[in-house]
Amino acid sequence: LISYGLVEAGYNTIVIDKSVPGFGSSAGNTGLIQYNSDKPLNEMIIDFGEQWAVDFYRFSVEAMTEFKRIAGGFDDVGFKPINSLFLCSKESDLPSVQENYAALKRYSFPVRWIDGATLRSEYNLNATAAIGTLGDAQINPFKLIQAIHTSNLQNKARIFKNASFDKITEVKTGYRVEINGFEIHAKNLIYATGYAPDILPETEPYILRNTTFSIVTEPLENSWGNQELIWDSAEPYIYFRVTEDQRLIAGGFDQSGVRFNSQAEIKKIGQQIYTKVKDYYPDLNSSIISHWQS
Fold first, then answer.
1. Distance (Å, rounded) from C-alpha 70 to C-alpha 67?
2. What pLDDT, on the 0 to 100 scale, is given for residue 3?
3. d(CA 65, CA 69)
4. Which of 53, 54, 59, 293 is least crowded, fewest Cβ atoms below 10 Å from its Cβ?
5. Cross-strand partners of 148
6. Which of 202, 199, 154, 162 is nearest to 182 (CA)?
C-alpha cells in the first residue's frame, strides 16, 4: 500500500522484497480491516491522553476511507465494505465493553450498541452484547498484494523479489543500498519490516512478537446476520469472517514469542478456535480444511 501511494504520487519507486511479495505474514493474514484498535479508545485515553487517542482513532477512520478507495479499484481481491461486531464474551466483560462504546460514541465514531436479545434475533449470535462498528472492510491480502504490484509495474515502478539487502550506507544524496553485488541509490528509504526480526537491530529491544493461529473451513451452508466481521472481548480473543467463496476463516488464541508449535498442537488449537466460533454461532456446521500458525 505504501508503494502504491508513492507510485500514484509520481515518485520513482523501487520495491525490494527479501522473499516473494505476499508470501510472508500477509499470506497468513485473515483479512479483517477495521478502524477499531486492539486497545479500546477509553483505555488509550487513560494511557496516552485524550488528544492523542482520539486523533489515533480518527486517523484510523480516514485510513479506512483511503483503503476502500484503493482496494475498491481492483477486481477479484476479495474486497467488500462491511460492518463489524465486537462481542462481549461474558457478563463480567460488560462494564468495560460499555465504557469502550461510550467513549466511541462520545467522540462521534460510527458505532451502535446491540443487546444480547437483538444479537440472537437479528444476527443468530449468542453473546452478552456487542458493539457494532460501521465502515469496515474485508480483503484477500495475498490477492491485493499481487494486484497492487501489477499496477505498480504497469506504472513504471520496479520490484525485486528474493532481494535481501547486504548493506545500507547513508551518503550525501541519500542512501546506497547494496544487494547481491548491485547498488540502488535512493533519496529516501521506507522500511516495511512486517514481523521479520533484525531488519533494524536498534528497534529490537522495543518489540514484542506474538504468533497467532488460524483456520479455514469448507464452504458454509448459512451464516450469521449480514456476514459481519466478528471479534470478541475474551483473553485471548478470536476473530472470524466469511470469505468471498463462503468459507469461515477464523483466527486468534495469540501466543507470546516466536516459537512455532507442532502440527498436532496447531491442529488442536485450530479446533478450539472452531469450537469458540460455534459457541457464538451455534448453526456453524462445516469442517476445517486447513490450519496454520503465523
1. 5
2. 96
3. 6
4. 59
5. none
6. 162
